[in-house]
Amino acid sequence: MLAFIALGLTITSCTNEDTTTEEEQNEEVSEVKLSSEIDTAASIIGDIIIEAYETEESDNLGRNGNGQGMLPNCVTITVVAQQGFREVTVDFGTEGCEVRGHLLKGQIVFSYTRNIEAQEVIINYSLIDFYFDAKQVIGSRTLFKERSNANGNPQFTHTLDITVIWPNGAQASREGLKVREWVEGFESGIFSDNVFEVTGNWTTSFVNGNVHSYEVLTPLRREVICSYFVSGSVDVQRTNFGGTFDYGIGDCDNEATFTFNNGNEVNIILN
């Protein structure tokens, strides 16, 4: 989930990382924006699947679920229930529905085998004619839930394989693994107080040929009520380029920093 730090820096001199042209800096900013949009889309898609799954399971077990969770009324949730099986369709409509400040269209469809005694659950999902703020998002992968990890917390391992297409034809793809440990709020029955810590590694490939690799150095703290990670850091590497992207120390804001391998630091404003 954090490939938005894919800084597309093309360095004209292999022996002098300190020298960049204005054109190269513009390319860097452009790919930061594209990558940040991928990350936002991937994070919220994951949020929605987890929220809808947990709400459905709460309803089945007679807990405090209400069939809708925190999702607005413009979202339609349909459940096909068979013995030991659930298929859930989260429909945002063809005209779109605003969810946490973003306009979503189309459907997220996920299914799983239900066994209340099982300690592990595989959730398969597909994006059907799905758009996130006018960007088409294509993907069909899995979430692997462990009811209790080594720390005693629920954990979701998200297999990443999505492609994002912008209205202007720009395109980028992401593959890898993202692990979400549910560290706060999982017993409250209220999704708004949930906090996840995210680790993992992934790659992002742009249509211009740039391929960036990412590995979480310090767990990324994801508070559901905030649109951005509030802390954590990621290592970013590309040919002739690399550094560390850092979200800060816990504030919910759109500010981050990137420190190049040569020690130079720049401020980043997230979209």
Report on this model:
- It is a single chain.
- The chain is mainly beta and about 270 residues long.
- It has a domain of about 180 residues.
- Strands 1, 2, 3, 4, 5, 6, 7, 8, 9, 10, 11, 12, 13 and 14 form a 14-stranded antiparallel beta sheet that branches.
- The N terminus is likely disordered.
Question: Quick recap of the structure?
Answer:
This protein is mainly beta.
Task: Label the overall shape.
Answer: globular
Biggest sheet record: 14 strands, antiparallel
In total, the number of strands is 14
Low-confidence stretches: 1-19
The percent range for helix content is 10-25%
Give helix and strand order, one letter per element, not per position. Answer: HEEEEEEEEEEEEEE
- Strand content of the residues, in percent? over 45%
- Mean pLDDT comes to 83
N- to C-terminal distance: 15 Å
The value of Rg in angstroms is 19 Å
Question: How many separate helices?
Answer: 1
Category by helix and strand content? mainly beta
What structural keywords apply?
14-stranded antiparallel sheet; 1 helix; 14% helix
